[in-house]
Each structure stands twice: as C-alpha cells, then as structure tokens.
Amino acid sequence: MDPEPTPHRPTRSSPAPTRSATPARPREPAGRTRLIRASALAALAVGALYLGWRVTSTLNPEALTLSVTLWLLELHAWFGLALFTYSLWDVDGAPPPPAELPELTVAVLIPTYNEPVEVLLPTIVAAVALEPDHDTWVLDDGNRPAVAELAVRLGARYLTRPEHTDAKAGNLNHALTVIDTDLIAVLDADHVATPGFLRRTLPYFHDDDIALVQTPQDFYNDSSFEHVHVRRGQEEHVVFSEQAVFYREIQPGKNRWGGAFWCGTGAVLRVAALGSVGGVATTSITEDIQTTIRMHRKGWRTVYHDEVLARGLAADTAEQYALQRRRWCTGAMQVMRQERPLTDRRLTPRQRLTYASTLLGWFDAVRLLLLLVFPLLVLLSGASPIAAPLAVFAAAFGASILLQQHALWRLARGRIRPVPTAVFDLSRLEATLQAILVGLTGRDIPFQVTPKGASGQTGRKRIPVPRLLLALAAGHMAAIAWYLLTLAGRTPLTYEIAGVAHGAALWAVINGLLIATAITRIRSSRFADERRGSYRHPVHATGLLDGRPATITDLSLTGAQLRMDPAATPETGTIGRLDLDMSGERASFVAEVRSVRPAPGEDGSSLVGLSFDDGQLTTQAQLALGLFNAAAPTGTPEEPRPVAVTATDDVDEGPTGPGPSHDDTGSIAVH
Q1: Which of 229, 307, 333, 533 could bond 236 through an S-S bridge, CB–CB 3.0 to 4.6 Å?
Q2: Alpha carbon of residue 619 to chain centroid
Q3: If you average pLDDT over residues 452-460, what whole number do you get?
Q4: What pLDDT digit, counting tens, does each position of 592-651 carry?
C-alpha cells in the first residue's frame, strides 16, 4: 500500500529572478508552426469527409463484417491523428527558467538492482561531479559489497534496505525516509549526467508549484537495436532513433497542456510534492507516470525541459527491446485501470487528453494486427469489403492516406519515417498484445529490469523471432500462394471483383516485406547479446601498447580495440600496458591481449582486442568522464589524435569522501 497522502494546495510562486536562462530549445519559426498545423487540419478535414463518404457509399452489405471492420480501422487511424495533432500543436510551451539557482537542497539518487559495476561506474562518477553542491546516493537493492565499495571510493553514499518490496518505487520511497532534502534528482543506473544537469533543471523550482522537471532520454550506444543506420562512404550514420519522436517532440508538446510526466530517469522532483501523494506510486510497474497523475490531481505543475542532459543505454537486442516495451505497456494498462486518468475530473480536460494520447497509443498494436490479417481474409475468402468503383475508391483512399502520412511527418518535425516505424511496430507487436491482455485483466506482474551490460554468454547468441511474427509470415506466404493458384484456376474460389483481389495481394506483399525486414533485424548478428561489460565507444585516437604505437578504434571502461603493425603485434594472452594521452597527462591501463586478427582493408594491419585488468578505478573514473561526456570528435581514420579528457585527478572533499570533479563546461574530446 502507498503511504497516506497529505493534501497540497497550489500556492503563489515565490518571487523568481527576472533574468532568464537560455531556452532549452530554439523556438520554432511561426511560419513553420502555421504550416504544420494547416497540414494536420487539412488531413483531418479530408479524412472526416472520406470516412463519411465511406459510410454512405462504399460499404458492401454482402460482406458487411469485413466492410465495417475496415471502416473502423480507418476511423481509429483518424482518431489517432487527431490526438497526435493535439499533442504536437505547440512544442515550445515550456516556461523560460530563471538563470539563478534556488536556495534548495538537492540529492542525486541512483537506484540499482543488478546492473554490473562497469555500467554503474560512469553514472556515479558523473553524478558526484555535478554542481552545485549535493549528495549522491547509490540505492542498491542488490546489497552488493562491490557496489558499496565502488560508491564510497567514488565519493557517493551507499544505501540498502532490509526488505526489497515494490522494486524501484519501493527503493526510492525508502530513500526518502532516510535522506533530508528539498529536491531529488533520479538517474537510472545506466544514465550518465552531463555536467550541466542540475544547473539547467533546478532554476524551475523557484516556482513553488513545480513538482517535476523531466529531461529527454537519449542514448550513447547508438549501435543499439533502436537505432537505424545508413552507410555513407566509410562511415555509418544514425538516421532514425525509435524513441526520438516521443522524447524530443511529444513530451515537449505536453508543456502547453500541463501534461508533461515523469519518465523514470533524468528528472528532478520536489520531495514535498511526492509527500503530498504518499510517495512514489507502488501499485503499477510504471510508477513514474502513475505518480505524475497523482501529483497533477493535487494541483502540482510539471515541466519538460527539452535539452539532453543525461544519456543511457538503449535496448541492445530485440529481446531487451520487447521486454522493455512489454513492461511499459503493461504499466500503461494498470494505470488506466487504477487511476482512470481519461475520465477523472480532478485532472483538467487538457491533461486528460494528453494522458489519452499517450495511454491509448498502445492499442495501435491491435489495429496493426487486424491490418495485417485483413488482406489475408480477403484473398482467402474472395469477399470484397468495398462496394464502389475501384478507381474512385483508390483515388479517395490515396488522397486521404497521403495527407495523413504527410501530416504525421510534419507534426513529428521529420522524426517519423514510415518504414523504420513499421518495422519497430512489428518487432514489439507480440509483446504489446500480451501486455494489453495481461494489464487489463489485473494480473500481478513483477517488475523486470531491462538487462544492461554483458550477457554472460560465451558467444554472441542471436535472438529468437517472436512466434506471432513467424505465424504472420507463414500466413502471408500461404495467402499469396492461394491468390496465385486462384488466378491460375487451381482453387475452387473465383474472385468476382478482380481489382479488389489484386489490391489485397499488393497489400499483403507490402506487409510481407515489412515482416521479413523485422525478422531480419531481430535475427541480425549485429544485435546479438553483448559480451563486453561496458559500451564500446568508437574513437580514432593514438596510444602506445608497451611502447609500440597503436591506433585505438574503440574504447570502453573494460577494454579497447587497437590497430597495429603486424610486426609489433603481441601474442594472445600477453599482459601489457596501454598508455593514453588524457588532458596532456599519460594514463596507463594494465591489459591482457584477448584476440589478434587481420584488420579489414589492404594495409595489412592487425586488430588487437584488449581487456583491462581490475583494480584500476582511478584511471577508469578519469576515462569515464571523458568518454561519456564527449563534446566533439577527436579525429578521423585518416588523422587520429590522442585521447583528450579535461577531467583531472583532482578530487572534491565532500561529506562522503573524495570524488572526481570537472568543470561545468563539459569534458572531453573522445567521440
């Protein structure tokens, strides 16, 4: 049970400084905003006319079930566009924060359960180094001595609890009974804060009614399953990130309607606001949005600060991706069932609509499944869902769908791409449908942490394809084969309206290609389980391995990959010393040569894989500040440069001991 809530009544904001800080994002030009809104309204108007025409002139009474089903699917898509338009009507709604910091105390909390030390280290190092003065607490639900030692040595405080109930929410609630502070900043165990994280978010709390400031989630492992790349020359570039449209457009759009919500990490919360609702909610597995709903009911206000101030680990594999989305969707169903935010009159109408746009979006998976099955039913049955001249229908349908897709692209400010979006929708389809069924039935679902870091596998294991996706692939192949056999007169079926059958076949072919693309991505060895304990940062830098020159091609806190002259390449199993130039100072790692293999290309060089020995925490902490707060590239394959990190070995003597520090301007030069 949640603690008994205490009432809150909004108060007049305390006087805030008149000087404002730089806005989180540049304001959108007014002309562009008007064009986006006009595109959305035009698509909605044409879509409404089209749906009306469909009802009066195109439904086939001889196949009424199919006809009505298709119309309902089109209506659902139109309704989704209307909510999307509402959500993204204005992405510049955040109030400008004051420049000065409030006179409030803050503690940075890092809840953890089973994340490896290699993942936690950069998070703790960066959190301890933040300004202004604060305490950093590592909240370890795993009761691990190694994590306790790591926290203390890095300058953080370490806290466990006697009973590990209610997962992350329970962990945070226990910390609130121990820590005396006005504000808490919450960072997941894999989310590394940039130097300005607190300085950019704390000024909003001059307003006494602000309960939450949330920042975007961004990810430093852009080789993850969630990122789509294209090759340009010798380099790969990210062209699509599955979560970008939510964190960089949808959430900023919620500021206008007072509906920005907590996303679990990268956020600062007022402790008094949490106390007014009985602490962090514990009755769903998405405690963040549930807690926000309760704070909104009490009259607290929230802000989304659209500036990346922390980066974490995106799901590396399709399995992690599906597990994470299953948890989010299950929690959304629990929240809708328990909190009823769509009808609760204690929320404003604007807030209810913003929650509707987020929570109801999960039901798009049901529409997707029906859209996948629908052409198969037409091909196998020979029934026609359309009773109108096909040329007229094709023209009306084409105009409506093109306007809708254009409006979606405009509203998302170019962050939506139809093919990658469809592939990700298919990749999580089974997980989402399972979550909808489970979440709405009220079954008790345990909190599952998304795995981070090394998998522990001796080899890279490919991820199995969801059974639903395999069944859909088989169904599409069978339906297309049936269609071809029917055209050849080899089945008892006759397509009375051949054009409808041809259209359904084309629809099935397109769906089949998207399904095949999703299966290929899921099974790709590129997204198999990770073996190295921490993320490999691509770099182009120089170093020395036992005094012999080497070009560093990737670097992590636990190892590195070097390109070396074969004549200078050590043997596998050799223990050596890797020297790096960090801010003009030489940093050395004791490392074991784990692998040696020919490098691709014609220069005849070798690739050398290194694993750093344990017990090098000081150097690892210095390296972490450089790698995870990169400001600019350090070179190209043609012109490598030394690794440069502005962090030094200086320490701040805080209340819990020494910890690395750096200035607020940022840190580094490895990218």
Answers
A1: 229
A2: 30
A3: 52
A4: 999 999 988 777 899 999 999 888 888 888 888 877 764 323 333 334 434 443 333 333
**Three-state secondary structure of 365-420:** HHHHHHHHHHHHHHHHHCCCCECCCHHHHHHHHHHHHHHHHHHHHHHCCCCCCHHH
Q: Partners of 231 in the beta sheet?
A: 236
Listed residue (142, 131, 78, 134) closest to 109, CA to CA: 134
Cβ pair 639, 510 in contact under 8 A:
no
The token duo for 255 is 């500021």
Q: Where are the domains of the chain?
A: 537-660
Residue with tokens 């006494």: 208
Is the pLDDT reported for residue 589 higher than 60? yes
pLDDT at position 296 over 90: yes
**DSSP three-state, residue 600:** coil
Is the entire prediction scored with pTM above 0.90?
no
435: pLDDT strictly greater than 90: yes
Q: How far apart are CA 655 and CA 242, in angstroms?
A: 41
Distance CA 173, CA 282 (A): 9
* Mean pLDDT value of segment 126-144: 96
Instruction: For the beta carbon of residue 355, count every other beta carbon within 10 angstroms.
Output: 27
Please identify which residue in the block is written with the tokens 């060089």: 605
Per the CB < 8 A criterion, the answer to whether 321 and 428 are in contact is yes
* Residue 68: closest CA among 390, 401, 370: 370
Of all residues in the chain, what percent carry a pLDDT higher than 90? 72
Pick the closest to residue 438 from 446, 428, 450 (CA basis). 446
Q: Quick one: which of 487, 640, 491, 615 has its CA closest to 562?
A: 640
Rounded CA-CA distance 433/133 in Å is: 46
Task: Give, in order, the Cα–Cα distances in Å from 644 to each of 5, 443, 569, 648.
Answer: 50, 52, 25, 11
The architecture of the domain spanning 537-660 is Beta Barrel (2.40)
The kind and range of the H/E element at 585 are: strand 585-598
Going 317 to 319 to 322 to 323, the CA torsion angle's sign is negative
* Residue 101 burial class via C-beta count within 10 angstroms: exposed 0-12, middle 13-18, buried 19 and up: middle
In single-letter form, the type of residue at position 133 comes to: D
Please list, in sequence order, all residues whose beta carbon lies within 8 angstroms of the beta carbon of residue 56, skipping any fewer than 6 positions away. Answer: none
| Two structure tokens written together for 103 | 């006179």
Strand, helix or coil for residue 257: coil
CB 439 within 8 A of CB 452: no
**Residues 557-585, mean pLDDT to the nearest whole number:** 86
Instruction: Name the strand (E) or helix (H) holding 436.
Output: helix 429-441
1 neighbors 292 (Cβ within 8 angstroms): no
Q: Tokens for 535?
A: 């993320």
98 contacts 19 by C-beta, under 8 angstroms: yes
**Is the bond into 538 cis (omega within 30 degrees of 0)?**
no
| Residues carrying an active site annotation | 141, 288
